[in-house]
Amino acid sequence: MIHVLRALTGLALILPVVAEARTTRVKAPQPVSAVSGDAETPITPSPAAHRVAQWVAGTKDNRALPWAVVDKENAALFLFDGKGKPLGAVPVLIGIATGDTASPGVGNKKLADLGPAEKTTPAGRFLAKFGMPVAGERVLWVDYATSVAIHPIPKDAAAREKRRERMLSPTPEDNRITFGCINVPKAFYGRVLRPLFRGKGGYVYVLPDSTPIEAVFPRLRVQAVMNGG
To answer: Is 204 in contact with 53 (CB distance < 8 Å)?
Structure first.
Protein backbone atom coordinates (compact mmCIF):
# COMPACT_ATOMS: atom_id res chain seq x y z
CA MET A 1 0.00 0.00 0.00
CA ILE A 2 1.72 3.17 -1.17
CA HIS A 3 -0.59 5.51 0.65
CA VAL A 4 -3.20 4.56 3.22
CA LEU A 5 -5.75 7.12 2.14
CA ARG A 6 -5.58 6.11 -1.52
CA ALA A 7 -5.95 2.43 -0.66
CA LEU A 8 -8.83 2.94 1.75
CA THR A 9 -10.99 5.40 -0.17
CA GLY A 10 -14.40 3.84 -0.63
CA LEU A 11 -13.36 0.59 1.03
CA ALA A 12 -16.14 -1.43 2.70
CA LEU A 13 -14.86 -4.68 4.18
CA ILE A 14 -17.33 -7.11 5.70
CA LEU A 15 -16.05 -9.07 8.69
CA PRO A 16 -18.89 -11.23 10.07
CA VAL A 17 -16.57 -12.75 12.66
CA VAL A 18 -16.64 -9.58 14.73
CA ALA A 19 -20.41 -9.19 14.81
CA GLU A 20 -20.33 -9.71 18.57
CA ALA A 21 -18.76 -6.29 19.03
CA ARG A 22 -19.10 -2.74 17.81
CA THR A 23 -17.88 -3.43 14.28
CA THR A 24 -18.34 -5.56 11.20
CA ARG A 25 -18.22 -3.22 8.21
CA VAL A 26 -14.84 -1.49 8.14
CA LYS A 27 -13.30 1.63 6.67
CA ALA A 28 -10.01 2.08 8.44
CA PRO A 29 -8.28 4.29 9.29
CA GLN A 30 -11.02 6.41 7.72
CA PRO A 31 -14.18 6.66 9.89
CA VAL A 32 -15.54 3.15 10.35
CA SER A 33 -19.16 2.07 10.09
CA ALA A 34 -19.69 -0.62 12.67
CA VAL A 35 -22.71 -2.83 12.96
CA SER A 36 -23.94 -3.99 16.36
CA GLY A 37 -27.35 -5.60 16.13
CA ASP A 38 -29.55 -3.52 13.86
CA ALA A 39 -27.81 -0.22 14.57
CA GLU A 40 -24.68 1.20 13.05
CA THR A 41 -22.13 2.82 15.35
CA PRO A 42 -19.11 4.65 13.98
CA ILE A 43 -15.59 3.76 15.05
CA THR A 44 -13.69 6.88 14.08
CA PRO A 45 -9.90 6.88 14.38
CA SER A 46 -8.37 9.85 16.11
CA PRO A 47 -6.17 12.20 14.04
CA ALA A 48 -3.16 10.61 15.75
CA ALA A 49 -4.24 7.10 14.71
CA HIS A 50 -4.79 8.31 11.18
CA ARG A 51 -1.33 9.86 11.10
CA VAL A 52 0.42 6.81 12.52
CA ALA A 53 -1.30 4.50 10.04
CA GLN A 54 -0.20 6.73 7.16
CA TRP A 55 3.36 6.79 8.47
CA VAL A 56 3.64 3.03 8.96
CA ALA A 57 2.20 2.25 5.53
CA GLY A 58 4.19 4.93 3.75
CA THR A 59 7.57 4.05 5.27
CA LYS A 60 6.96 0.29 5.66
CA ASP A 61 8.01 0.63 9.29
CA ASN A 62 6.29 -2.71 9.93
CA ARG A 63 9.07 -4.54 8.02
CA ALA A 64 6.60 -6.67 6.06
CA LEU A 65 5.00 -8.01 9.25
CA PRO A 66 1.32 -7.60 10.14
CA TRP A 67 0.60 -4.60 12.32
CA ALA A 68 -2.05 -2.96 14.41
CA VAL A 69 -2.73 0.54 15.67
CA VAL A 70 -4.31 0.76 19.12
CA ASP A 71 -6.14 4.06 19.38
CA LYS A 72 -6.59 4.62 23.10
CA GLU A 73 -8.57 7.82 22.59
CA ASN A 74 -11.33 5.97 20.76
CA ALA A 75 -10.73 2.55 22.34
CA ALA A 76 -10.25 0.83 18.99
CA LEU A 77 -7.77 -1.41 17.22
CA PHE A 78 -7.09 -1.15 13.48
CA LEU A 79 -5.49 -4.24 11.94
CA PHE A 80 -3.38 -4.48 8.76
CA ASP A 81 -1.52 -7.25 7.00
CA GLY A 82 2.17 -7.10 6.13
CA LYS A 83 1.49 -5.19 2.92
CA GLY A 84 -0.67 -2.61 4.64
CA LYS A 85 -4.04 -3.99 3.59
CA PRO A 86 -6.68 -3.11 6.21
CA LEU A 87 -8.22 -6.25 7.69
CA GLY A 88 -10.59 -4.85 10.25
CA ALA A 89 -11.27 -2.56 13.16
CA VAL A 90 -12.70 -3.53 16.53
CA PRO A 91 -13.41 -1.90 19.88
CA VAL A 92 -10.98 -2.72 22.66
CA LEU A 93 -10.82 -2.54 26.42
CA ILE A 94 -7.70 -0.91 27.83
CA GLY A 95 -6.08 -0.07 31.16
CA ILE A 96 -8.36 1.59 33.65
CA ALA A 97 -5.82 4.32 34.42
CA THR A 98 -4.69 6.93 31.91
CA GLY A 99 -0.96 7.02 31.34
CA ASP A 100 1.63 6.16 28.75
CA THR A 101 4.37 4.41 30.71
CA ALA A 102 4.41 1.33 32.91
CA SER A 103 5.36 1.66 36.55
CA PRO A 104 8.77 0.20 37.45
CA GLY A 105 8.50 -3.47 38.38
CA VAL A 106 4.84 -3.75 37.39
CA GLY A 107 5.55 -6.87 35.35
CA ASN A 108 6.69 -8.74 38.44
CA LYS A 109 3.60 -7.99 40.50
CA LYS A 110 0.45 -10.04 40.90
CA LEU A 111 -2.64 -8.43 39.43
CA ALA A 112 -4.19 -8.15 42.86
CA ASP A 113 -1.19 -6.12 44.03
CA LEU A 114 -1.40 -3.45 41.35
CA GLY A 115 -2.38 -0.01 42.54
CA PRO A 116 -5.00 2.03 40.65
CA ALA A 117 -2.39 4.25 38.97
CA GLU A 118 -0.41 1.20 37.78
CA LYS A 119 -3.21 -0.17 35.61
CA THR A 120 -2.10 1.59 32.45
CA THR A 121 -1.69 0.52 28.85
CA PRO A 122 1.75 1.86 27.90
CA ALA A 123 2.21 3.66 24.60
CA GLY A 124 4.87 2.81 22.05
CA ARG A 125 5.98 0.65 19.16
CA PHE A 126 6.15 -3.00 20.16
CA LEU A 127 7.16 -6.19 18.39
CA ALA A 128 4.35 -8.48 19.55
CA LYS A 129 4.68 -12.26 19.61
CA PHE A 130 2.80 -15.20 21.04
CA GLY A 131 4.42 -16.59 24.12
CA MET A 132 4.05 -18.22 27.51
CA PRO A 133 0.46 -19.04 28.39
CA VAL A 134 -1.72 -17.23 30.86
CA ALA A 135 -4.34 -19.41 32.54
CA GLY A 136 -3.35 -22.22 30.19
CA GLU A 137 -3.72 -20.22 26.97
CA ARG A 138 -1.01 -18.55 24.92
CA VAL A 139 -1.47 -14.82 24.45
CA LEU A 140 -0.09 -12.21 22.10
CA TRP A 141 2.47 -10.41 24.22
CA VAL A 142 2.78 -6.75 23.33
CA ASP A 143 5.34 -6.11 26.06
CA TYR A 144 6.23 -9.17 28.10
CA ALA A 145 8.39 -7.20 30.56
CA THR A 146 5.36 -5.20 31.73
CA SER A 147 2.83 -8.04 31.30
CA VAL A 148 0.84 -6.25 28.60
CA ALA A 149 -0.82 -8.56 26.08
CA ILE A 150 -3.65 -8.64 23.56
CA HIS A 151 -6.27 -11.28 24.31
CA PRO A 152 -10.04 -11.75 24.60
CA ILE A 153 -11.93 -10.88 27.76
CA PRO A 154 -10.67 -13.30 30.43
CA LYS A 155 -13.12 -15.97 31.50
CA ASP A 156 -12.43 -15.13 35.13
CA ALA A 157 -13.05 -11.39 34.76
CA ALA A 158 -15.25 -10.16 37.59
CA ALA A 159 -18.91 -9.91 36.59
CA ARG A 160 -19.15 -6.48 38.21
CA GLU A 161 -16.66 -5.13 35.66
CA LYS A 162 -19.18 -5.74 32.86
CA ARG A 163 -16.41 -6.03 30.28
CA ARG A 164 -18.58 -7.47 27.53
CA GLU A 165 -21.18 -4.75 28.00
CA ARG A 166 -18.46 -2.11 27.88
CA MET A 167 -17.06 -3.56 24.66
CA LEU A 168 -20.51 -3.62 23.08
CA SER A 169 -21.36 -0.08 24.11
CA PRO A 170 -21.58 2.51 21.32
CA THR A 171 -19.02 4.89 22.85
CA PRO A 172 -15.41 4.52 24.07
CA GLU A 173 -15.97 6.31 27.37
CA ASP A 174 -16.50 3.11 29.37
CA ASN A 175 -13.78 0.98 27.74
CA ARG A 176 -11.13 1.57 30.41
CA ILE A 177 -11.39 -1.40 32.75
CA THR A 178 -8.37 -3.74 32.35
CA PHE A 179 -5.19 -4.02 34.39
CA GLY A 180 -3.26 -2.82 31.34
CA CYS A 181 -3.84 -5.53 28.75
CA ILE A 182 -5.77 -4.93 25.56
CA ASN A 183 -8.97 -6.98 25.35
CA VAL A 184 -10.42 -7.63 21.88
CA PRO A 185 -13.54 -9.49 20.71
CA LYS A 186 -13.08 -13.25 21.05
CA ALA A 187 -14.08 -14.11 17.47
CA PHE A 188 -11.83 -11.45 15.99
CA TYR A 189 -8.91 -12.68 18.10
CA GLY A 190 -9.37 -16.33 17.19
CA ARG A 191 -10.19 -16.04 13.49
CA VAL A 192 -8.30 -12.95 12.35
CA LEU A 193 -5.64 -11.64 14.71
CA ARG A 194 -4.17 -14.90 16.07
CA PRO A 195 -3.60 -16.58 12.69
CA LEU A 196 -2.02 -13.38 11.38
CA PHE A 197 0.47 -12.96 14.24
CA ARG A 198 1.05 -16.66 14.98
CA GLY A 199 4.18 -17.03 12.84
CA LYS A 200 6.73 -14.25 13.21
CA GLY A 201 4.57 -11.92 15.22
CA GLY A 202 3.96 -8.34 14.18
CA TYR A 203 4.12 -4.74 15.30
CA VAL A 204 1.65 -3.04 17.58
CA TYR A 205 1.57 0.75 17.74
CA VAL A 206 -0.13 1.88 20.94
CA LEU A 207 -1.01 5.56 20.83
CA PRO A 208 -0.48 7.78 23.90
CA ASP A 209 -3.03 9.38 26.18
CA SER A 210 -1.19 12.63 26.77
CA THR A 211 2.46 12.27 25.75
CA PRO A 212 3.26 14.11 22.48
CA ILE A 213 2.96 11.60 19.68
CA GLU A 214 6.38 12.53 18.27
CA ALA A 215 7.94 11.65 21.62
CA VAL A 216 6.40 8.18 21.43
CA PHE A 217 7.14 7.69 17.72
CA PRO A 218 10.21 9.86 16.94
CA ARG A 219 10.26 8.83 13.29
CA LEU A 220 7.05 10.75 12.77
CA ARG A 221 9.10 13.91 13.18
CA VAL A 222 11.38 12.80 10.34
CA GLN A 223 8.36 12.15 8.14
CA ALA A 224 6.98 15.62 8.88
CA VAL A 225 10.29 17.21 7.85
CA MET A 226 10.42 15.18 4.64
CA ASN A 227 6.86 16.26 3.84
CA GLY A 228 7.74 19.87 4.42
CA GLY A 229 5.79 20.10 7.68
So the answer is: no
